[in-house]
Amino acid sequence: MTDRSLFFHRDFRLLLFGQTTSQLGTQVSGVAIPLLAVLTLHATPFELGLVTASSTLAFALIGLPAGAWLDRWRRRRVLVASDAARALLLATIPLAAVLGVLSLAQLIVVALLAGFARVFFDVGYQSYIPTVIGRDRVLAGNSAMETIRASGQVVGPGIGGALVSLVGAAAVVLVQSATFAVSAASLLAIRTREPSAPAQQDRPRLRAQIAEGLAFVLRNPILRGTAIASAAGNFSFAMSSAVSFIFMSRTLELSATAIGLIIAAGSVTVMAGAALTPRLARLLGSARIIWLSLAVTAPISFIGLFAQPGWWVVLIVVGIAAGELGQIVYAIANVSLRQRLCPDRMLGRVNATMRFLIMGLFPLGALVGGALGELVGLRGTLGVAGAVLILCPLPLFLALRGRRDVEELPEWHGDAAINA
Asked: What is the CATH number of domain 4-191+206-419?
């Protein structure tokens, strides 16, 4: 199957359509919810940090058992249930706004519960793609998926910012609720049959499965290095997320529409990076690109710290563009490596363990960012976050030094993972 023929694969198109739609909704409300907290509910940096932390706390609480459960269940059913749950939860926000009872406490609770659904979706989705398109096409499939989905990241924030100005932030959240429902319907239409789940009597105990997945990751130097780098990157992103919208709104004196357009302009590189990842992997090496993508772009992303009101706002656009470019190339190459080399029976647990290790620091980073925003100011917090991001490529380089391509690495089979 060629890269182009993926688009003639019916089930891949359905998967692509559902995720493109939900990604658009996520990007629209990704602007709306922080602005709802900042402009309508007048949140402080620490309060906005609480909202951000709540959305990812579930990864620390159920990240490990989620992978073991997903290796026992049919993954498509879990994905559909996750989308449906998030659609219903988000719909409560505009309803509460209409009734005049919306509060920061509700935003925190909705973010927390939607985060639990996200854990199952994110882990299950990464494990489900090889079932639909085959393990040998995961790099091309992930690149195509991210290229199309990135279009939502480009237009979504601009639409979200404009809609916030026109109809209010709470009403815009309803857009994301609807897109999750569309994603669920697209998944239901997929016909590809999944392998049968293990019979109940053949399943090891849950604790043993979790331990096996955790040991598999921790004993593998490549997985261990990418987990450390990704966790540090997410910690940095969480810190900056706690203050970035306040920084743009109050320090740079930008309107909701302008904030959305700036994020959209900075995110144009996501679409370019997703489309170019296979070519960059061939040119620079599919293993080498994993650490090189961050090493080149992280220092440039630091420049947004120096943005000022007026034309100097362009610096934050450059910073966002560099950071998004590095992250999308890194994400596609890294996940594809995992999908390519990890045995299918372990893929759910390995993905869950990685998400647990990667996202576990996100809530702490959001709280630290909120606290630092109160103590050292918004620019100081963004500076600390940028310094952490610059250090992220180091463990990746140490794990993959001397390796150009994924094909040079052996497949990971149990104890063999120790020497991978």
From this structure: 1.20.1250.20
